[in-house]
Each structure stands twice: as C-alpha cells, then as structure tokens.
Design a protein that fits this description.
With 411 residues, chain A is of the alpha/beta class. Chain A contains 17 helices and 8 strands. The chains are: A alpha/beta (411), B alpha+beta (463). At the A-B interface, helix 2 of A face helix 2, helix 4 and helix 12 of B. The structure holds flavin-adenine dinucleotide and iron/sulfur cluster (SF4) (2 copies).
C-alpha cells in the first residue's frame, strides 16, 4: 500500500522541470507571504525530497505537514503546467502517506479530530440531527426515485464559522490541544459544536429551501433523508485517510441505497464532484445517477434582466477533468455576467477548503479573490457553493445562486 | 547560528530557517541542483534589503537574489550556506504614465501580470520570454531577457529607463530616470541589466512602455530545408522589413505541438517559419503581401497569411509553449530538455543552422531546433538524460561546439538566457576566441569595485 503511494508520488513529481509556472496561479502562495513550500512548485519540490528520504530510509524526519495540508486541491496549477504535473494530486498523495502512519509526526491533530468525529457521527461536528432543521414544514415525497442530497454542506457552514472565532479566542496551541483531545474522545465534539453563527444559519436554511422551491417549480417533488442524511465524507477523503474513506463511503452508499433512490440530486460542488468522480473508484456497487440540481431547473423562465453580475466559478466544477458549466450558462440566461480576470480554467479558489486547518490563510485568500470579483464593477457577486459563499460574503453584495435564481423567478 | 539570529532581528518572520521551507529555494528551472542555504530572506521593504545586505557584507555571507526562479542557467540557485534573498514581496505596480511612456514597478511583479495591467491603458511592456507567466521584472532585467517580440523591440535592455539598486555595500542608488533620453555620464542603468545579481539588488524599476500595435498579421511558411529558412529571413530583413516576430520550428517541435496542442501541420515539411508584422489598419494587408512575396522567392512548400486574432493567438501561444511541448516527447522522467541558446547575425543564420544540424548528428543527440530567427537567435533543445553521465558529457561537448559555431559566425554563446553556472566556460571561450580577454579583466574590476568581498552570487558568471 505505502509502496504504491510512494510510486505514485515519485511518478507525479518526477515529471516536474521546476519551471515555476504553477506558482503564478497557486492561490495559497502570495497570501502565505511567498513562503514557497506553501505554493505549487514548492509542494512538488518538497514532495520530491520527501520521496527521496522515504526511498532511502533516511532517519531525518521532514516536517512537511503544513506544505501539503495547506493545499486547497483546486488544481489551478495543473492547467498551466507544461509537464502535466498536478501539485494538488502531489499534496493529496503526500497527505495519504502521512495518514497511512508512515510519518506520524506529520499528522495534523485537527485533521485527525475531523476524521474520528465523522467516522463516529457521520458528520464532522456531530450535528447530523440539527442539520435537518431547515426542512421543517416542507413536504417531501418518500416514494420519489429522486433523492435530494444536501450532504450537510450548507448546514455545516454556521458551525465552522463559529468554530473559527472560538479558535481565535483559544489561540493556535490550545486549539491543537483541544483537537487532539476530541480526536481521541469524539463525544467531546459537543463542547465545540454547540455554537453556530445564527445569521448564517438562517441564510443557509433559506438557500436550501430555495433549492427545494426551484426543484418543485420544475415539477420535481423529491425525497430527503432528514436527520438520517449522512455527510458524504469529503474531509476524510481530502485529508488523505483513504482506508477510512473507503469504509465511510460504503456506509453512506448503504444509507443511500436503503432509501430506494435511483438518482441523487446534489446541490454543492464538493458533494457533486465526490459522488460523481471519487465514490465510483472506492465503492464497487455505487451505481446511482448523480446530477447537479442546476441541470434540473434549466427550463424555468427566469426572465432576462440587464443586471451586471459577476460569478465566482467553483474549482470543483470548472477545474476538474470535465468542466461543469451549467450554473454559469443559466446565469447568463438571466443577467449579464462579467467574469473576473481569473475565470474558467484559471479561476482562483476562495480559500474555503483551508478554513478549518489554516483559517488565517483562508481569510487572506478570500480577500484577494473578493477583491478580484469586485474589480469587475458588477453589482453583485454570485457564488454556487456554500463554502465559497461563506468565505466571500464580505458584504451584502454576495449572493448564493439559489437565492439569486429564486429572486429572478419570483419577479 | 549567531548569523541566523542577527538576520532574524532584521527580518523577524520574514526569515525562513527550517530545512523544509528552504527546499524550494534550492532550485530554479535549470538542471543544476542548489545546496541548502543558511536561510531565506523575504524582505518587504528597501530598508530590510539594505540591512540584510549590510549584515551579509559584515559577516562575509554570500547572497543570491531570487526573482521568479525561472533561470535556465543556475543563476538563481544558492550554494551551501548562502542567503537566498527573495524579492517576491516586492510585487506592486507603483505608477503607470502612458503619456510619458513609463511604468514604475517593483522587481517581484511577474511579466504577464504587468502586461495584463498595462493593457488597461492600451500599452504594453515588450520583453516577452516564454516564461513570462512566472518570470519577474527583476529577474528578467538581471538576465536581459529577450523573447519573441525582441525581433522588433529588442531585449529588456532597451526597455529599462532607470533603477533603484541596493549595492553590495548597502548604499541605495538611483540610476537613470523617467525620461526617454538621457546623456549624463556613464550608462549605469545598462550595467545592471544582465548582471545576474552580481552588482546589487534591484528594488525598483522604471520601465519604458509602448502603445499596443494597432493591427497585426501573420504569415506561416513551410520549407523543406533549413537553408531556405535562413536565407528567406535574411532577404526579408535586407529589404527593410522588420517583423514583429519571426520564429522557426523544426519537425520535432511541430510534432510535439501537434501532440500537446492539437495543431495541424503539413506532413511533408521539415521547417515552419512564423512571421508577424505590425502596422496600421490601412497598410497591414499590403505589408503582409510584400513580405509574403519575398518569402515565396525561396520556394516554400506552402504559405498562408492570416489576420484572424483567434488563430494568431493560438499560434503565438503554441510557439511560446514550444519548449514545454517538447517535454511530451521525453522518454523517461529523468530526462530533461536542456536549452542551448546562441545568436549570430541574421545573414549568417543559414550557415549556422546547417552547421548546428551537422553537430547534432555528429554527437548522436536528439535535439529540437527552434528560435527567434529574426534576431539570429537559435535554441537547440537537447534531450538530456541527467542520470547518464556519458550522455551528459556528450551534451557538454555539443554545447561547446554549438558555442563555437556562434563565435565563428560573429555571434555570442548566450543570446538571452545569461551565463549563470552553465556558461561560465563558454563565456571565457568566447572572450578568448574573439581576442577580448581584456573584457574579462574589465568585468572583474567592475565586480570587485562594487563588491570587494565577492558576496553577490559568488561562483556565478565568472570567478
Ligand atoms: C519554460 C521557460 C522558457 C523560457 N524562455 C525564455 C525566453 O524566451 N527568453 C529569455 O530571455 N529567457 C527565457 N527563459 C529564461 C528565464 O525565464 C529568464 O531568464 C527570466 O528572465 C528570469 O527571470 P526570473 O524572475 O525567473 O529570474 P530568476 O531566475 O529568479 O533570477 C535570474 C537572475 O537574476 C537575478 N535576480 C533576480 N531578481 C533580481 C533582482 N531584483 N535584483 C538583482 N538580481 C536579480 C538572480 O540572482 C539570477 O542571477 C525561459 C525559462 C523557462 C523556464
Ligand atoms: S508548472 Fe509543472 S513543471 Fe513547472 S514547476 Fe510547476 S509542477 Fe513543475
Ligand atoms: S491544487 Fe491549488 S492550492 Fe494546491 S498546489 Fe495546485 S494551485 Fe496550489
């Protein structure tokens, strides 16, 4: 297992000619003060050294964790690399090596905490029960073959935002200590997760309800698992815990199968990408049709206004092998879209994936991106991902695409 | 450790000392591997640069300045216990004044980022090395970078009006200025251009900028011999036509571009010539057709004119990515593409190209030839197996022969990539063979006058 990971790492870093092109697009580099190991080329070069050390059985331990855990997995680097290297994959494989136990001193306590609580509660913060509150009063159709799968993503945002203010209060060292403690005793997560940002909670709930309304307006009355709905395991996968992810994904698949659903309607880019591209590699009988809800509401009449908006394209939609552009296409039908300097295959991540492990870095990345979006001169900034929304909602000009579309539909 | 402590007092968190953080600073885009530096300094203002330099001078610590780290000659890598002085945090565009044709920028700004910004003013900064996405203003000044547009606009040297430099003794000097003309004593600005960080640290640059051309057009001509390519371009220039861009590619380069970018080229041709002209809207068509007539005299297999911006962009990007595309033809990961970079007068091109091809055969190497043909710049892209000593020695011998071809035809062993570690021997050879040994003495005297202890980029360019 570890040998195959090492070979995978060697093959990827071996292609690199160290031209530095990837540094010019890597969103983590300038916000980290040009500390190169937190940029794409640096990650590849550090991984090269790591692979060399592991291969030679060197005793000197490289403390490389921050380099790889701070990578956003956005893959912007891949599209400018002349040698076809993906520094995101390099970081992911390195995290897998760390998680496999080969480099115990490199494990990140917050990462371990998240994995152990998710494995136990099927939700990273143990708030699965609360994550269904948004749907109170709504009528779902238990017999529908279509399952609305929120993956708890919108619902988790108010908690992560509060968690970060708590971490700021506690300081870095204390937070790590707490994380280590919770990692060993998952029930302690309750102390952390009893706080949530109420305004954001209301906003996220409204977005979820808007999505249901959009689907209903398109004639789709779907089923929803409520408090039984599991988190898809994105963190476990992203943090490199492949073995645990396999077990977890099988659990989730069973729950989805037991629901009798045939088609899974995802509503955020991370869950869409994970279910469409990663689950089939880990779970043998994962045979659902996975769709994004935007594809199901395309025929609604939103009208066309002259409003100039800008769109922050999510990495997990446009920087993957087959770019998914339906949200932008739909937006273009309703308004005039002015794209920021970095868009399409050069879109810049909002920094969201770093929110739990590197909150300060995440904040700086989001500020840079928000600045670029505002420079377009558009009246509003539209996002299509709860993580992007939370990170980019610097003022009232940022709006989630479901809220935006509902507004247009009702006009 | 005392030294690190001293630097920490100057730089605080802007000093990196852990082994892991230093790793990425040990490499540039060349095949040379640097050694572990003492520390990496990331100053954020001129005062910090000055303090660091003064400290290093006092303690005799060698310093290598780093911009984008895209050098192909090893000029930006550290040796053991150097201080790497990264200028990355100097990333601001300070002022753009189109009416006076200048922009003031910090050295860490990337060339593409600068041009993206200048486009808002309808202007551009012409030096465009194929690495412009990652190369910095400071690094490209310090290597006197060229690029595709050097055919018409010349290299970086022609576009630097003034500089702010921290000298090796810690003095901050301003040379040149904002004006397009100046005859006030020695041209010190030019001396820092191409100095590879041996004479000081560039902390600010006043660059000449130019209006974007009104209209552009492109001729694509394919030939069956390299001789015809060389002669065609010489004749064109002889007729008084200076292309905006004139590039040639050989078959290996075309094949790699087909593979990586899906471009289509005629089967039976061995060489492609790209000629771009810029002019006014009214005269572009006439000038393109005049130039095409000249190129036709040398019997191209086929020839085509286009003014379609999308197609032109596609070909420009493809040519810029030619080196990168060659990577797709590598046989293993340990193989690199080492770039030979010579220049000859345009009239000597045809002979120099023919001799280069013969040397490739003689040394049994796989080499793709392309280059900025209008200014006589030939790049020999050599597939190099870094793990194979015998192969690398053969490449060294080829590089010497390639350099000799340049000298024989009145050119130079380095057109635009600089000297660094790679071409120290070749530089000496050029000066020797052209009877200019005294030039080396002058260069050594200058370097010593600026930097008596030799702390700046020690071991690079010349000893
Ligand atoms: C794929 C590829 C294609 C290339 N194509 C071309 C091309 O077409 N034309 C061309 O000319 N070159 C080309 N190059 C070479 C290289 O990109 C250029 O030499 C570039 O100008 C170097 O800029 P940099 O910022 O990366 O400098 P670095 O590599 O960081 O440094 C280069 C030298 O400048 C010094 N230096 C850097 N900043 C400063 C400063 N502020 N003050 C003083 N000294 C400083 C360094 O010490 C070093 O000696 C190419 C390189 C690659 C990888
Ligand atoms: S762009 Fe690719 S080849 Fe260049 S440094 Fe980055 S990973 Fe290496
Ligand atoms: S995946 Fe994104 S964050 Fe990670 S190295 Fe590549 S560009 Fe940087």
């Amino acid at each position: 297992m570890t040998e195959s990971l090492l070979q995978k790492l060697e093959a990827e870093v071996g292609k690199c000619i160290s031209c530095g092109f990837c540094e010019s697009v890597c969103p983590t580099l300038s916000p980290s003060g040009y500390d190169l190991w937190k940029g794409a080329r640096g990650r590849v070069l550090v991984a090269k050294e790591l692979a060399k050390d592991l291969r030679s059985g060197s005793d000197g331990i490289l403390h490389v964790s921050d380099s790889f855990y701070s990578c956003l997995d956005c893959y912007a680097c891949l599209y400018v690399c002349p040698a076809g290297v993906n520094a995101g994959i390099v970081s992911h494989t390195s995290r897998e090596i760390i998680a496999s136990g080969m480099l115990p001193e490199n494990e990140n306590p917050v990462a371990k905490m998240i994995v152990s609580t998710t494995m136990k509660y099927l939700n990273p913060l143990g708030v699965r029960e609360k994550a269904s509150k948004w749907a109170e009063g709504l009528n779902f159709n238990d017999n529908s073959p279509d399952l609305l799968y929120t993956g708890n993503m919108f619902q988790l945002m108010p908690y992560t935002k509060s968690l970060n203010s708590l971490r700021n209060l506690m300081g870095r060292r204390m937070s790590k200590f707490m994380a280590g403690l919770v990692g060993k005793h998952p029930p302690l997560i309750g102390f952390i997760s009893n706080r949530r940002d109420r305004d954001l909670d209301a906003r996220m709930s409204q977005s979820l309800r808007n999505i249901v309304e959009l689907l209903e307006s398109s004639g789709l009355n779907v089923k929803y698992l409520g408090s039984n709905e599991p988190y898809p395991g994105t963190f476990i996968y992203d943090l490199g815990y492949a073995d645990q992810f396999r077990i977890y994904a099988e659990k989730v698949t069973k729950i989805l199968k037991d629901s009798g659903a045939k088609r899974i309607i995802t509503i955020d880019p991370h869950t869409f990408d994970l279910l469409k591209n990663t689950y089939p590699k880990f779970v043998r009988d994962f045979d659902f049709e996975v769709v994004h809800y935007i594809d199901l509401i395309k025929d609604l009449d939103f009208g066309k206004s002259g409003e100039k908006v800008t769109f922050h394209e999510p990495c997990h939609l446009v920087l993957r092998e087959c770019p998914y552009n339906s949200p932008m296409d739909l937006l273009r039908q309703t308004s005039e879209v002015i794209l920021p300097a970095r868009s399409g295959r050069k879109t810049r991540c909002c920094g969201g994936p770093n929110e739990l492990l590197f909150p300060e870095l995440s904040e700086k990345i989001s500020e840079q991106r928000y600045g670029e979006l505002r420079e377009t001169g558009a009246s509003r900034v539209v996002t299509a991902c709860p993580i992007c929304f939370t990170n980019l909602a610097k003022d009232e000009k940022t709006i989630e695409i479901s809220d935006f579309l509902i507004e247009k539909l009702r006009k | 450790m005392d030294q690190v402590h001293g630097l920490k007092q100057i730089l605080g968190a802007n000093l990196l000392t852990s082994r892991e953080q230093k790793i990425p600073f040990q490499t540039d885009a060349s095949y040379f591997q640097g050694q572990e530096p003492l520390a990496v300094a990331l100053p954020e203002n001129v005062k910090q640069v000055r303090e660091v330099i003064k400290f290093c001078q006092e303690h005799s610590i060698p310093v290598v300045v780093r911009g984008g780290g895209t050098a192909l000659t090893g000029s930006s890598i550290p040796f053991k216990d150097f201080i790497v002085l990264s200028m990355a945090k100097f990333d601001k565009i300070i002022e753009v004044k189109p009416e006076d044709r200048y922009a003031i920028v910090e050295p860490g700004v990337k060339l593409d980022a600068l041009n993206q910004y200048l486009a808002n003013f309808g202007h551009f900064y012409p030096p465009d090395p194929a690495s412009s996405m990652a190369a910095s203003v400071g690094g490209s000044i310090s290597t006197n970078a060229g690029g595709l547009r050097a055919s018409l606009y010349g290299t970086t040297r022609n576009w630097v009006l003034g500089l702010e430099v921290v000298l090796p003794n810690g003095e901050i000097v301003k040379v040149g200025g904002k004006v397009l003309k100046r005859t006030a004593g020695y041209d010190l600005t030019s001396m820092f251009v191409g100095a590879e960080g041996t004479l000081g640290v560039v902390t600010k640059a006043i660059l000449k900028i130019w209006p974007l051309p009104e209209s552009k057009g492109r001729i694509l001509a394919y030939y069956d011999t390299i001789d015809k390519v060389g002669k065609a371009i010489s004749k064109l220039k002889g007729k008084g036509i200076t292309p905006l861009i004139a590039e040639f590619l050989d078959r290996i380069s075309m094949d790699s571009l087909s593979k990586t970018r899906g471009l289509k080229f005629p089967d039976e041709v061995d060489y492609m010539l790209i000629v771009d002209l810029s002019s006014t809207r009214e005269s572009i068509d006439r000038e393109l057709s005049d130039a095409a007539e000249v190129l036709k005299e040398f019997g191209p297999v086929s020839i085509k004119i286009t003014t379609d911006p999308t197609e032109m962009d596609r070909i420009y990007e493809a040519r810029k990515g030619a080196y990168s595309s060659l990577l797709s033809e590598r046989e293993s990961n340990s193989e690199r593409v080492v770039i030979g970079d010579i220049v000859v007068p345009a009239s000597e091109l045809s002979a120099a190209l023919k001799e280069s091809e013969e040397k490739v055969k003689e040394h049994h190497l796989k080499v793709a030839l392309f280059g900025h043909i209008s200014d006589g710049n030939i790049h020999a892209n050599i597939y190099a197996d870094l793990d194979n000593r015998e192969h690398m020695e053969r490449i060294d011998r080829f590089q010497i022969d390639f350099g000799k071809i340049a000298i024989k035809h009145g050119g130079s062993v380095s057109a635009e990539h600089g000297i660094g570690i790679e071409k120290k021997e070749l530089l000496e050879m050029e000066l020797e063979e052209t009877g200019s040994q005294y030039t080396m003495e002058i260069m050594k005297t200058i370097r010593k006058a600026f930097d008596p202890n030799g702390i700046m980029n020690r071991g690079k360019m010349f000893d």
